[in-house]
């Protein structure tokens, strides 16, 4: 029997409403939450202690994912036209690496760093209607450059790593399933991918996070839920979200005991937006679990790639 959906006390973190908010990352060094507004495109930050907000404009027409640098100076941005170095102080962006894909067909999408700082980012087709399934890839970005590691994807989502770094999760959104790979944290190599969870056809698995006990938390886009699965793949919790289109979740706060969720209002008509005026905002809730720190991408790797 599946657990009953929980109605918790969500709070709004940011009152600006981008078309799609994605990729929340908590940074303990300045007690801030970062996320991206995909089509603006911009990287956003809000201080959780002081409420001070900041926004950096980003290159190209779309941004999929990013990773914060280990020295706190900026972020590696996976944009439609390449990987960029964003410098926080100046706001300047510099191309680090061209896209490894055809920019007329694909864009970067979901991504995050493994425990050693390697940045994993997947792609998805610009035009979903008529797109050939299984033509997209997951790429690894490290000191050796950008290399394709996992193929056969259509829309890359749900990237996360177990607390010990020995399991990698990917949501195969189009096929309504979540995959789990054995992962070598020394070499950064995934292998032996297996179906971890299969969800209903009506469910759309999106962005994810992992807690300190190894639970896999994933947003259900359009379903208004965040779900927690145990490391064995059992559905453990279902939490209702304030709006119907959550996009990604992340643990944050000084004790990493709060769950932040970004949301979307993409393709909502006037009636839907009237019914969900807070769609696109960022929310936070206490869920009684503790997360794991988000790894940083080494600045030296970005510098050496130029």
Query: Helical segment tally?
Result: 2
Q: State the helicity in percent bands.
A: under 10%
Spell out the helices and strands N to C.
EEEEEEEEEEEEEEEEEEEEEEEHEH
Largest sheet: 4 strands, antiparallel
The stretches of 5 or more residues where confidence is low (pLDDT under 50) are: none
Question: Nutshell version of this structure?
Answer:
One of its GO terms (biological process) is L-ascorbic acid biosynthetic process. The protein has helices at residues 270-275, 299-304; strands at 11-14, 21-27, 32-37, 42-47, 53-57, 63-68, 74-79, 82-87, 93-97, 106-113, 119-125, 136-142, 145-153, 156-161, 167-172, 177-184, 189-198, 205-210, 216-220, 225-229, 235-240, 246-252, 258-263, 282-286. It has 306 residues and is mostly beta strands.
Task: Tell me about this structure.
The protein is mainly β and 306 residues long. It has one domain: TolB, C-terminal domain (Neuraminidase), CATH 2.120.10. It contains 2 helices and 24 strands. The strands form 6 sheets. Strands 1-24-23-22 form a 4-stranded antiparallel beta sheet, with no helix packed on it. Strands 2-3-4-5 form a 4-stranded antiparallel beta sheet, with no helix packed on it. A 4-stranded antiparallel beta sheet has the order 6-7-8-9, with no helix packed on it. The model has no long low-confidence stretch (mean pLDDT 95). Pfam families: SGL (PF08450). This is Sugar lactone lactonase YvrE.
């Amino acid at each position: 029997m599946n657990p009953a959906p929980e109605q918790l006390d969500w709070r709004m973190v940011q009152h600006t409403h981008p078309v799609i908010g994605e990729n929340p990352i908590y940074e303990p060094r300045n007690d801030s939450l970062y996320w991206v507004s995909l089509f603006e495109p911009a990287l956003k930050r809000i201080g959780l202690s002081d409420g001070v907000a900041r926004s950096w404009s980003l290159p190209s027409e779309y941004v999929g994912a990013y990773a914060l640098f280990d020295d706190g100076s900026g972020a590696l941005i996976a944009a439609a036209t390449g990987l960029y170095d964003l410098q926080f102080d100046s706001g300047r962006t510099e191309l680090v690496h061209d896209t490894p894909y055809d920019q007329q067909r694909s864009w970067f999408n979901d991504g995050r760093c493994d425990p050693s700082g390697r940045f994993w980012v997947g792609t998805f087709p610009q035009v979903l209607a008529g797109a050939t399934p299984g033509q997209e890839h997951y790429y690894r970005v490290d000191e050796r450059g950008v290399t394709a590691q996992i193929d056969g994807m259509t829309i890359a989502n749900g990237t996360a790593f177990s607390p010990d770094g020995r399991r990698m999760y990917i949501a195969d959104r189009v096929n309504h399933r979540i995959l789990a790979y054995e992962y070598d944290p020394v070499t950064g190599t995934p292998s032996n991918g297996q179906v971890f969870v299969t969800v209903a056809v009506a469910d759309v698995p999106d962005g994810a996070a992992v807690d300190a006990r190894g639970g896999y938390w994933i947003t259900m886009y359009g379903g208004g839920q965040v779900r927690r699965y145990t490391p064995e793949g059992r559905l453990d919790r279902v939490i209702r979200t304030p709006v119907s289109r959550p996009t990604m979740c992340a643990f944050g706060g000084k004790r990493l005991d709060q769950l932040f969720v970004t949301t979307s209002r993409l393709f909502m008509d006037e009636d839907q937006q009237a019914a969900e005026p807070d769609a696109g905002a960022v929310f936070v809730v206490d869920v009684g679990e503790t997360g794991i720190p988000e790894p940083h991408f080494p600045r030296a790797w970005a510098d050496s790639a130029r």
